[in-house]
């Protein structure tokens, strides 16, 4: 176990050269909008083919929230895409353990694969509505404190506000 280095980047996660790119997927694993749409568009049909195989073999009822699974990265400059399902934000129910689980499970899968570098989006902080500061706090705390052989975790934040919020939380 080494100490993980956390980096923040503003940009598009599909431009990253890393061992594993994390996708903020939904439990169907069949694609969607946001970062999920971008990853499938840029990575090409091989990713969806793998997702369909995983559904057929293991996740007929869908990948549960908080879990993670790996597929090929297709045409992306990475070896794997790790798909995780974030929780939809609820103002009345505390679902933060599920959001933390997305990062922990993604790192566990990355360790199984032997990945040393990983890129994360701000899981649940888009279509799933999680307030960005809270999503950033949970993401950074979980990645910092999870034992892993991954050496570098890069948070790739799409817009300036999300990047600035992560930077504030990191300090
Ligand atoms: N690179 C990096 N970050 C991105 C990119 C990109 N190319 N595109 C968007 N983001 P979201 P969620 C940011 O909505 O909230 C999908 O339909 C975005 O600005 O992608 O977990 C899935 O299929 C935000 O900061 O994921 C699910 O149904 C962050 O990525 C649902 O959306 C996450 O936003 C998941 O919603």
TrEMBL record:
Gene3D superfamilies: Leucine Aminopeptidase, subunit E, domain 1 (3.40.220.10). InterPro entries: Macro_dom, Macro_dom-like. Pfam families: Macro. Residues 1-171 form the Macro domain. Signal peptide: none annotated. It comes from the Bacteria. NCBIfam families: PRK00431.1-6. This is Macro domain-containing protein.
């Amino acid at each position: 176990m080494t100490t993980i280095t956390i980096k923040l980047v503003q940009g598009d996660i599909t431009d990253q050269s890393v061992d594993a790119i994390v996708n903020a997927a939904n439990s169907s694993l069949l694609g969607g909008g946001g970062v999920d749409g971008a990853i499938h568009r840029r990575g090409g049909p091989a990713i969806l083919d793998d997702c369909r195989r995983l559904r057929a073999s293991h996740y007929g009822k869908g990948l549960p929230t908080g879990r993670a699974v790996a597929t090929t990265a297709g045409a992306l400059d990475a070896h794997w895409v790790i798909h995780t399902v974030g929780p939809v934000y609820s103002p009345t129910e505390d679902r933060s353990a599920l959001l933390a689980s997305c990062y922990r499970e993604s790192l566990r899968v990355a360790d199984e694969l032997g990945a040393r570098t990983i890129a994360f989006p701000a899981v649940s902080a888009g279509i799933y509505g999680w307030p960005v500061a809270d999503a950033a706090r949970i993401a950074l705390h979980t990645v910092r404190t999870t034992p892993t052989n991954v050496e570098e975790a890069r948070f790739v934040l799409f817009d300036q506000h999300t990047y600035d919020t992560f930077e504030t939380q990191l300090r």
